[in-house]
Design brief:
Layout lengths: L2 H10 L4 E7 L5 E7 L3 H7 L1 E4 L13 E6 L5 E2 L9 E9 L10 H16 L1 E15 L23 H16 L4 E6 L5 E6 L2 E2 H21 L2 E4 L13 E9 L17 H12 L1 H8 L5 H4 L9 E5 L5 E4 L13 E3 L8 H17 L18 H6 L3 E2 L4 H9 L2 H7 L1 H19 L4 H7 L4
Parallel strand pairs: 1-6, 13-14
Antiparallel strand pairs: 1-2, 3-4, 4-6, 5-6, 7-9, 7-10, 7-11, 7-12, 8-9, 12-15, 13-16, 14-15
Helix pairs in contact: 3-9, 4-5, 5-9, 6-9, 7-9, 7-11, 9-12, 11-13
């Protein structure tokens, strides 16, 4: 869609306000809203804003930033009332001199994917499975996570309202341009998953952002809180965002597919997997970027903590799902450690960088962990099988990222600095907190 097409669509859809959106380094949606009469000017000249007020963007002395609209990301916000009908467009960020801003997560990924096409004839496709909770609104200041329903995995209707809300969410997302494949109740009480068709990494990252934004807005209209927090409730499954990955040629051939291989995956795919295993500890800092992420990444709750790959073993970090018969397009590698708190633009960037490093260095892929329940192995048995673990905390993950030049180069100097500052600040804030658990355990015993 070009600017002329966009203006025509906005007119046809009777839009009253436009939301110009982008993300900070943490993946939080930022928005500059404007009335309809500003859209032509915005398409021609962009929109200026103060970047120094956005985490990870700019210092005070270089604060002027410029939003440039990507017309292809236009979508109606279907939950807004007709008389105040709104739409959104995603934007790339530029500096006053017209150069792309190297601290823009979306822009950095966009340029990297363009380079991938030009230099290698590769397209990275990603199909994520974002999970989330719906909680009852039970307070204005101190909110406690109370599940919205009593359903279980794939349950049809333990609570009719849960089905209605999820159906409404899927309808809204379809209207916003996501090709929804399936939505269902997940394992934990109040937990849901909505899956949409895979696409190239940039469009998929945009879709993840759209899904999170829409789910929260529609849940709020039902008096519910939608949470993408990785582990909001102790003792039950947390929320992940497994990512199905493949590399296609620009002609549409799945380069991960080899019909003659026992797993039907190509040498390219083996090396891609080996690269991600090689960088797994550093990857976790980006793919599981919060203190809370490591409350999910513990043995016993299906979340992967062991570095290895398999076809049928769900305790492995990377799994090769069974493809459809005689359908090479469906061959992919499922990375299971990401959670929905990640910034998808950063996540897909470092996932690609790790995989390409394996391809370029022709890293050998270790033997698969098929038919081996890693959770039941002792530490000594895991050592015998050369099975390492992901970091046990954000602190450990950040330390691993700080020594990984491949992932840092993928993000670039500015994004790396902003990302590390945000993660260190979060860890230090958490480290100095006094939690309810500590009060209960130590107040009268210490």
């Amino acid at each position: 869609m070009d600017s002329k097409d966009l203006l025509e669509r906005i007119k046809q859809d009777q839009i009253k306000f436009i939301s110009f959106q982008f993300t900070d380094v943490n993946g939080v949606v930022k928005s500059v809203d404007g009335p309809l009469n500003q859209i032509e000017k915005a398409l021609k000249n962009g929109i200026w804003f103060d970047g120094s007020s956005v985490e990870g963007f700019a210092r005070i002395q270089e604060s002027d930033m410029h939003l440039v609209i990507d017309p292809d990301t236009y979508a109606i916000l279907p939950w807004t009332p007709t008389e105040m009908k709104r739409a959104r467009v995603l934007c790339d960020i530029y500096q006053p001199n017209g150069e792309p801003f190297d601290g823009d997560p979306r822009g950095v990924l966009k340029r990297r994917l363009a380079q991938l096409k030009e230099e290698r004839n590769f397209i990275m496709n990603v199909g994520p499975e974002p999970e989330f909770f719906l909680f009852l609104q039970n307070g204005s200041e101190t909110i406690r996570p109370v599940p919205h329903d009593v359903g279980g995995y794939f349950d049809f209707s333990a609570n009719d309202q849960a089905v209605r809300v999820r159906t409404e969410l899927m309808a809204a997302l379809n209207e916003m341009g996501l090709e929804i494949e399936v939505g269902h109740h997940e394992v934990a009480l109040g937990q849901h998953e909505i899956d949409f068709r895979f696409a190239d990494a940039l469009k998929t990252a945009d879709n993840v952002l759209t899904l999170k934004y829409a789910v929260k807005a529609i849940a709020a209209q039902h008096g519910l809180i939608a949470s993408f927090m990785p582990k909001p409730v102790f003792g039950i499954n947390g929320s992940g965002m497994h990512c199905h990955q493949s590399i296609f040629s620009q002609a549409g051939e799945n380069l991960f597919y080899d019909p003659g291989d026992r797993f039907r995956i190509s040498q390219l795919a083996y090396r891609f997997i080996a690269g991600q295993l090689e960088h797994a500890k550093a990857l976790s800092a980006v793919l599981a970027p919060t203190v809370n992420s490591y409350k999910r990444l513990v043995p016993g709750y299906e979340a992967p903590v062991y570095i290895g790959w398999a076809q049928v073993n769900r305790s492995a970090l990377i799994r090769i799902p069974q493809p459809m018969p005689d359908d090479g397009e469906t061959v992919r590698a499922e990375l299971r450690c990401p959670d929905p708190s990640t910034n998808p633009y950063l996540a897909f960037n470092v996932m690609l960088a790790a995989g390409l490093d394996g391809i370029d260095r022709e890293l050998p892929c270790p033997e698969p962990l098929n038919n081996l329940n890693v959770y039941e192995l002792s530490d000594e048995e895991r050592r015998d099988h050369n099975i390492d673990m992901l970091p046990g905390s954000l602190f450990e993950a950040v330390n691993a990222f700080e020594t990984d030049s491949v992932l840092q180069e993928a993000l670039g100097e500015r994004l790396t600095e902003a990302f590390l500052n945000a993660r260190r600040t979060e860890w230090e804030t958490f480290r100095t907190q006094v939690t309810d658990w500590e009060i209960k355990r130590y107040l009268t015993t210490a």
